What we know:
FAD/NAD(P)-binding domain, 4-stranded antiparallel β-sheet
Amino acid sequence: MEDHNRFDVCVIGGGLMGSAVALGLVRSGARVLMVDKISRLQTASKGNFGLVWSQSKGSGNRDYSRFSEKAVLDFTDFALWLEEESGIDIELRLGAGLILCIGDRELAARTESIKKFHHEAELHGERHPSIMVNQQEVQKLVGKTALGEEVSGGSFSSVDGDVNPLLLLKAMRRIFIKLGGVFLGGCLVNGIKRRNRSYHLETSSGKIVAAKIVLAAGFGNIPLIGMMGEKLPLIVQKGQLLVTERVKPFLSLPFSCLRQTGCGSVIIGYTQENTGFETGTTVSAAVQLAQRAVRIFPGLRHIRVVRSWASLRIMTEDDLPIYDEINGYPGCYVLATHSCVTLASLHMSLLPSWILGGKRPDIIRKFKLERFNV
Ligand SMILES: Cc1cc2nc3c(=O)[nH]c(=O)nc-3n(C[C@H](O)[C@H](O)[C@H](O)COP(=O)(O)OP(=O)(O)OC[C@H]3O[C@@H](n4cnc5c(N)ncnc54)[C@H](O)[C@@H]3O)c2cc1C
């Protein structure tokens, strides 16, 4: 192996996880190679809803709630830096986000859930940043746009928001390259060996040698970690979305199930289906999504849907992130979680110093693989 193919770190996977971490690593001065088996993404990093969201994260697990809240609070500075360095406006809106309820039953369930979040935060002397709002308050938030009669209220967060996830990814990748990172698209990693304190990767583009490796390959982490005799407890969950034609701005804050993008389209989300690794869309799911959207904003009944797609959420068995160094493989890290849009700020700022040999950040101390070895 020639020296020019040696890197401090090779990040496997160029989605939202890999790109955020690779960017943080290169910003810390490391020589970083990021590889992805496809050059044009078709994964969760491309098919997601774009929320920067904490109000519903970590019920029963204050560590994860706190982690999500910090990610959202750090997002403004992160976005400012990304925009300055990349020249790309990533369309971030923070400061208002709503989980909307239809009917009394949904409202009661949401009220209970928010009560629980508040209670769990109070037990740690902290505050959960969302409150319940009634139908009139939701109407005030959305201004003139008429709400459907069945809308009963919702939970409102004064920190959550949304972003254009495609532009977020593009900005992170652009700066990564600008700062000296190397990106190799169309490069499938299909073998990992540890020799002489380095990792030797067999790939479709030839051999790669790196002192450390980061497995940030979404579901691709399952076979990769299997090469080291470990199992990764990931669960597949399909989410289907709809996108409408562009319309005049009518909604200035994102709902968890409906938001208007910077170019005027309305994104309507999303299903939660357990149908394995298939990503087909169905008419029945599209109908269900469209009907709910019209119950929220009856005016949407006249708007045309132009596209629908589905992609796969990378969930862990307990819905919490996995950030770990693999047992017996020093310098080999596995990263896997849902919500990589929201968590991008922390993935870039927190994980790199740990990967480069620093202390494991306290805030992620519980997100280890060993919790599944019962
Ligand atoms: C419908 C839906 C809605 C969502 N909405 C939100 C939201 O609103 N907010 C939020 O925060 N999150 C949301 N998410 C979650 C978010 O999209 C994911 O957390 C994120 O995209 C995961 O990124 P990743 O980089 O870990 O994985 P991926 O996007 O799967 O990227 C992994 C990459 O690794 C590459 N790869 C795999 N194996 C190999 C290999 N052997 N060699 C080389 N490359 C390899 C793949 O080609 C891929 O590009 C949503 C997800 C879905 C599906």
